[in-house]
């Protein structure tokens, strides 16, 4: 029996997340990376530690991070990953934080994915059709759409914007970027009237096929644990769980 290939480490994937899904503002406090955009997507507007041993004066550093977000007019959020100091969750709880969201990071080797089973458009930048379809399909708030629209100008690594049409209309969309080895997919969305036809799968396979041609070896996605449909899609394609993280915000 052939053993599956070892998955990329949480540290490698967390670094890739910073590169493939950049935020417009970023600051550092020890090993903590603090990011902010327009206040839309929680994973773009949160603080995360990159060293579990970095736990000196956690209450004081949490307070400094809160002040940073206050100056931006945004709520403070913290992302707890396997790289977070063990005492961080308790320090946040004492300051009134509670569980806001649970996410699983799934990954798979790109050379094991099948080819797309239908046509998909791959563009260097999104057009208005892509934005309109993604906004409608994802029911995006203005803050989230502002972050998506800002993304092309923030990218330093290769990226691709995927569209699948039904007739003349863009029905499903997604975004992929690669740091060289890892390719992250985000903002996958299908119009409600077009779901159940395999369009999201086609976006995923087209995006990761592009990334494989760019030299990437691994694909990864972040999926909320409550999103049963996305979890089922990626697990059917052979994606495995690398780790989970939780978002904490003040009640």
Report on the structure:
The protein has helices spanning 10-20, 58-72, 88-94, 128-138, 142-154, 199-213, 228-236; strands spanning 25-29, 32-36, 47-49, 77-80, 97-109, 121-123, 159-166, 169-178, 182-190, 218-224, 240-250. With 251 residues, the protein is of the alpha+beta class. Helix 2 links the parallel strand 3 and strand 4 (77-80). Helices cover 32% and strands 31% of the residues. The protein has seven helices and eleven strands. The chain has two domains: 10-105; 107-244, Aminopeptidase. It is globular.
In short:
Helix content is 32%, strand content 31%. The chain is an alpha+beta fold and 251 residues long. The model has no long low-confidence stretch (mean pLDDT 96).
CATH class membership of the largest domain: Alpha Beta
Mean pLDDT: 96
Enumerate the strands of the largest sheet in spatial order, edge to edge or round the barrel: 1-2-3-4-11-5-10-9-8-7-6
The main pleated sheet reads as: 11 strands, mixed
CATH-defined architecture of the largest domain: 3-Layer(aba) Sandwich
The secondary-structure element order is: HEEEHEHEEHHEEEHEHE
User: How many E strands?
Assistant: 11
Termini separation? 49 Å
Strand fraction equals: 25-35%
Structural class: alpha+beta
CATH level 4 superfamily of the largest domain: Gcn5-related N-acetyltransferase (GNAT)
Q: How big is the Rg?
A: 18 Å
- The helical percent reads 25-40%
- Give unreliable regions as ranges: none
CATH fold-type name of the largest domain: Aminopeptidase
Number of helices: 7
- Specify the overall morphology: globular
């Amino acid at each position: 029996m052939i053993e599956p290939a070892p998955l990329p480490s949480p540290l490698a994937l967390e670094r890739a997340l910073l590169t493939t899904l950049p935020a417009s503002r970023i600051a550092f406090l020890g090993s903590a990376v603090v990011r902010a955009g327009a206040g839309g997507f929680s994973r773009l507007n949160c603080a995360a530690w990159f060293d579990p041993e970095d736990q000196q004066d956690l209450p004081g550093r949490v307070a400094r991070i809160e002040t940073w977000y206050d100056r931006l007019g945004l709520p403070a959020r913290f992302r707890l990953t396997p790289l977070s100091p063990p005492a961080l969750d308790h320090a946040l709880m004492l300051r009134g934080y509670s569980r806001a969201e649970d996410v699983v990071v799934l990954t798979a080797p790109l050379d094991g994915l099948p080819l797309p089973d239908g046509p998909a458009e791959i563009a260097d930048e999104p057009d208005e059709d892509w934005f309109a379809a993604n906004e409608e399909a994802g029911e995006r708030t203005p803050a989230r759409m502002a972050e998506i629209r800002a993304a092309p100008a923030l990218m330093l690594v290769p990226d691709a914007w995927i569209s699948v049409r039904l007739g003349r209309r863009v029905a499903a969309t997604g975004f992929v970027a690669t740091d060289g080895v890892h390719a992250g997919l985000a903002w996958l969305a299908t119009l409600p009237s077009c779901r159940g036809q395999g369009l999201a799968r086609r976006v995923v396979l087209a995006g990761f096929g592009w990334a494989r041609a760019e030299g990437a070896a691994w694909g990864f996605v972040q999926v909320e644990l409550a999103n049963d449909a996305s979890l089922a899609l990626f697990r059917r394609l052979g994606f495995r769980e690398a780790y989970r993280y939780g978002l904490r915000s003040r009640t």
